[in-house]
Automatic annotation (TrEMBL):
Keywords: Acyltransferase, Transferase. This is citrate synthase (unknown stereospecificity). PROSITE patterns: CITRATE_SYNTHASE. One of its GO terms (biological process) is tricarboxylic acid cycle. Its EC number is 2.3.3.16. Pathway: Carbohydrate metabolism; tricarboxylic acid cycle; isocitrate from oxaloacetate: step 1/2. NCBIfam families: PRK12350.1. GO terms for molecular function: citrate synthase activity. It holds the Pfam family Citrate_synt.
Length: 356
């Protein structure tokens, strides 16, 4: 019996495939590299939902724009309740408040996730929400609502690339959670809220912040080798390196590195991060020879979102804003099977005493 389900196939999906040995991620029949930075998030959503969501055939940009506007009308009155909450807590409160009875749940959930991420980050800092622009691209609008200031085309493309990159990734913990809830026929919005709850934990959504802490502590490129080597000598793990599934480089790291590279030259730490990455890979090879430890997605997530002016507490909400499209699709796929996910447990407690 496998404890923890590590090698168990718990669902069939046509949505995405993760090949950890080859370092390959396939989303809706396309390699990640064909989509991220090339296809707008709205179009990636339409591709992912093709065959699952009937109205996904309309103009995806207009669909999500309308969804953001409808979500904002519902969520804006809740803004005063965000004060004192972390951004993830605020996002959970907002998404959990959406009524179950809406007809177009799929688009509403994704639109609401973008609005809620922006509102929750602002609310955690005591700032009032900013209304969406239904005519804008989804990524550009999220970033503008979060910042409360205009976003240039390069920055919008940076976030767009990020949202497409995280749209789906096999049966990770939050997606599995969303499928379990969907399997009870609880509906799309409940499945999305459940996915967000699973994402909140530091073992799933939490590495990008520590990547920035590590870069802050290293300080200069000259200091990198000694700092990283000392950390490994103390048995610490280098943040943004290694992965449970990928035994080679995480393909998402490369597309995010390219996206961050397009923002280079501004006042950010992209060039520094690239230099530290090169040193870290040498230190890892020296300290753990033959282990195939390479850069994971979280390293360049941190660099890219930081360069876009997103505060650290906004990293997980933005991940959720992108991943909601995947949670929705998995929830629909699972609901259609009509089968509840109900694994077994092995009892290791004490047995009642036998009757004499
Ligand atoms: N830095 C230094 N050494 C490492 C690192 C790292 N980042 N990752 C793994 N190792 C070492 C382990 O200590 C272990 O060494 P040992 O056998 O001598 O004790 C060896 O490499 C093998 O590690 P695994 O057991 O294969 O790694 P595991 O699958 O358990 O962990 C994990 C994967 C949690 C991602 C790990 O690599 C890690 O902690 N990385 C740093 C945190 C991080 O970047 N998290 C984000 C992950 S990506 C994501 O969530 C989307």
């Amino acid at each position: 019996m496998t404890i923890g389900l590590d090698d168990v196939v718990a669902a069939e999906t046509a949505l995405s495939h993760v090949d950890g040995e080859a370092g390959r991620l396939i989303i809706a029949g396309h390699d990640l590299e064909e989509l991220a930075g090339r296809v707008a998030f709205e179009d990636a959503v339409a591709m992912l939902w093709s065959g699952l969501v009937p109205n996904a055939g309309g103009d995806p940009r207009a669909l999500l724009g309308r969804a953001r506007a409808r979500a904002y009308a519902h969520l804006a009155p809740l803004a005063p309740r965000l004060s004192g909450l972390t951004a993830v807590e605020g996002m959970r409160l907002l998404l959990a408040s959406l009524p179950d009875a809406e007809e177009d749940h799929p688009a509403l959930a994704v639109g609401a996730a973008g609005v809620a991420a922006s509102m929750a980050v602002r609310g955690s800092r005591g700032l009032a929400p900013v209304a969406p622009d239904p005519a804008a691209h989804h990524a550009a609008d999220i970033l503008r609502m979060m910042r409360g200031a205009p976003v240039d085309a390069g920055e919008a493309k940076g976030l767009d690339t990020y949202l497409v990159t995280v749209i789906d990734h096999g049966l990770n913990a939050s997606t599995f959670t969303a499928r379990v809830v969907a399997s009870t026929q609880a509906g799309i919005l409940s499945s999305v809220v459940a996915g967000l709850c699973a994402l909140k934990g530091p073992l799933h959504g939490g590495a990008p912040g520590p990547v920035l802490d590590m870069l802050d502590a290293i300080g200069t490129v000259e200091n990198a080798d000694a700092w990283l080597d000392d950390a490994m000598a103390r048995g610490e793990r280098l943040m943004g390196f290694g992965h449970r599934i990928y035994r080679v480089r995480d393909p998402r790291a490369d597309v995010l590195k390219a996206a961050a590279g397009r923002l280079k030259g501004k006042d950010n730490r992209i060039a520094f991060a690239e230099a530290v990455e090169a040193v870290a890979l040498k230190v890892l090879e020296r300290r753990k020879p033959g282990r195939r430890l390479d850069t994971n997605m979280e390293f360049y997530t941190a660099i890219l979102l930081d360069a876009l002016g997103v505060p650290r507490e906004g990293f997980t909400p933005l991940f959720a804003a992108g991943r909601t499209a995947g949670w929705v699709a998995h929830a629909i796929e699972q609901t259609r099977t009509g089968r509840i996910i109900r694994p077994q447990s092995r009892y290791v407690g004490t047995w009642p005493a036998e009757a004499a």
